[in-house]
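Input sequence (123 aa), recorded before submission:
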Amino acid sequence: MLGVEASNYAELHKRLAEAPGAALLSDAGPADGPGVGFTKAAMVTVAGPHTVTAACVGIPHAQIFLSQNSLGGTEHTVFEVDCSRTQSQVVQLQKGYVSAQLTRPDPTGAWTGAVAGIKVTAQ
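Predicted structure, token format:
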């Protein structure tokens, strides 16, 4: 199974590398099994449009949350990632911390070596 996971990570990193620009935040992790998910935060130093690129390999879909605190509370953007392709979306980020989190839709599912990741780049 580790060989499958390694192969999936190689494909995932190839897909995320297509995102243009320097990475503000980039992370990847297992999309199923007991050690599922990731949580990563980064500091946004320049407010404005940022490109979020998300991908997954080895499962049909994944869900990744992007969160940022604002004056009105915490703003969440949910990315329903179709693993058959790499998805990109432009989001407006404010100065301050932004975090990304991969969650597991099926907490009782088996480990298959599936992986998912996100890359946030400034435009």
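Checked by second reader. The radius of gyration is 14 Å.
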